[in-house]
Design goal:
mainly beta; six-stranded antiparallel β-sheet; six-stranded mixed β-sheet; disordered N terminus
């Protein structure tokens, strides 16, 4: 990530000092000093406001030692608000900087978490994106991007920050070099004023005889859809139209007829890729003759609602629908996936790398889905509140839940009347017992614990 636009910097949390002594197998943290002085708040935009709610000892690690993620998440957080008092649209980044006075710099030893309008799951520093192309504060070793988000004027976002030593790191318990090390960090906000991006038009009607993207072609007349990174309309296009949400012609759509099937391929193009709307709810639903959707040039960075996105599509297609690039969709902002894949047929769905740290609703997400394998193995389930009927009535041979923690979500009828054979892969007996006892699991489903 490179930020080349003019930015505003707000240092919102002062220095977090961590002093440690270590033996081969035990830790003793002597003290943690945290300060927040008025002089530490650096602002270059008068209409941006930072409100610190934390107390000086809210990240106190006194007499602490490496802890698990569940223990880390239970710590009292450091709380702060970010308010956009401007009339303009602002994109901002929350960045953690490790200061050059730090001697505890092994990226695997330190874990951070951020909860708020956007969430960062517990992550070691080595998993975070580094940003060293702009000067956040002086005398830093590395800058780590925790989250990025946007907000409109007069909008406030609240965040909870936690940090701990990573008990899951194998080396931390025996590393003699950690003795008497210290860690100094600062959290900063980098804000960028910009115009709202030009997005794909919103989906207003999803009946199969309604017009797709407000154009001249009906949903039941389409056999393929492809997103492209240009607006060069070919001569063989039957027609074209403006598919931009604000009708400024920056996103163009066109259709090409397949004379053998008398159905259309619809292309949607925008320079550098098509930016999806904040809601893609129902975007590809009820396309009865669709065979293939190429999503490789669809940018869903700003999308918050993907409910019913592929709902009951390809119902006239006896073969599996091809969803090209589905594995690479940016889901970091998505909160709603209700009935997203309900009642469709695919060969596989590899969603293992989807970022679900902000996902709230997965109600009926795969209800009635037919597939050989779906892979959800790396999902963060901590923030999901509703998994009711998530796999109900589905016909899926293999479901990969390898790295799931036990969710706290509602799970009524989660596996109601799922069809056999079905194998579910999990990481331990705890999640196996949760599935067996709490999700209305169909008798005969095989739960396999992966060591």
């Amino acid at each position: 990530m490179k930020i080349s636009r003019k930015y505003m910097i707000y240092t919102i949390i002062g220095i977090l000092m961590l002093l440690a002594t270590i033996t081969a197998v035990s830790y003793a943290f002597m003290s943690t000093n945290q300060t927040q002085e008025e002089s530490n708040i650096i602002t270059t935009l008068d209409c941006m406001d930072i409100s610190i709610k934390g107390t000086n000892d809210s990240l106190n690690l006194k007499n602490a030692y490496p802890i698990t993620d569940s223990q880390g998440k239970s710590q009292i957080p450091y709380i702060f608000d970010v308010t956009n008092n401007c009339n303009s649209y602002v994109e901002y980044y929350i960045v953690m900087s490790v200061m050059d006075t730090s001697t505890l710099t092994n990226e695997d030893y330190i874990k951070v978490q951020l909860d708020g309008n956007k969430n960062l799951r517990p992550s070691s520093l080595e998993k975070l994106e580094k940003e060293n192309t702009f000067s956040i504060t002086e005398n830093t070793l590395n800058n780590y991007v925790l989250i990025s988000d946007t907000f409109n004027g007069n909008e406030t976002h609240t965040y909870n920050y936690r940090m701990w030593l990573n008990a899951d790191s194998n080396n931390i318990w025996t590393d003699e070099t950690v003795k008497n090390q210290n860690l100094t960090v600062k959290l900063s906000i980098v804000g960028v004023t910009l115009n709202k991006p030009d997005m794909l038009v919103d989906t207003l009607d999803t009946d199969e005889d309604s017009f797709f993207l407000n154009g001249p072609v009906k949903r039941n007349e389409i056999e393929k859809i492809a997103f492209v990174n240009h607006t060069n309309i070919p001569e063989e296009a039957i027609s074209s139209w403006d598919a931009t949400n604000n009708q400024n012609n920056l996103i163009k759509a066109w259709r090409i007829l397949n004379e053998e099937t008398n159905l259309y391929t619809v292309y949607i193009g925008q320079k550098n890729g098509v930016i999806a709307n904040t809601s893609t709810s129902g975007l590809f639903s009820n396309l009865p003759n669709i065979k293939e959707i190429n999503l490789k040039e669809l940018n869903t960075r700003y999308t918050e609602d993907m409910s019913y996105m592929f709902y009951e599509t390809a119902t006239n297609n006896t073969n599996n629908i091809k969803l090209i690039g589905i594995e690479d969709l940016n889901t970091s902002s998505v909160r709603y996936m209700t009935n997203m894949f309900s009642n469709i047929k695919v060969e596989t769905l590899d969603l293992s790398m989807w970022n679900t740290s902000n996902l709230n609703q997965a109600l009926g997400m795969f209800e009635g889905l037919e597939a050989n394998t779906i892979n959800l193995s790396n999902w963060d389930t901590d923030y999901i509140q509703n998994m009711n009927s998530m796999f109900a009535y589905s016909n899926i041979e293999n479901i990969r839940l390898d790295n799931w923690n036990t969710p706290n979500a509602l799970k009524s009828n989660m596996f109601l009347e799922t069809n056999l054979p079905q194998n579910i892969y999990v990481k331990n007996e705890t999640i196996k017992n949760w599935l067996s006892n709490d999700t209305n699991l169909t008798e005969g489903i095989n739960i396999i614990v992966i060591d």
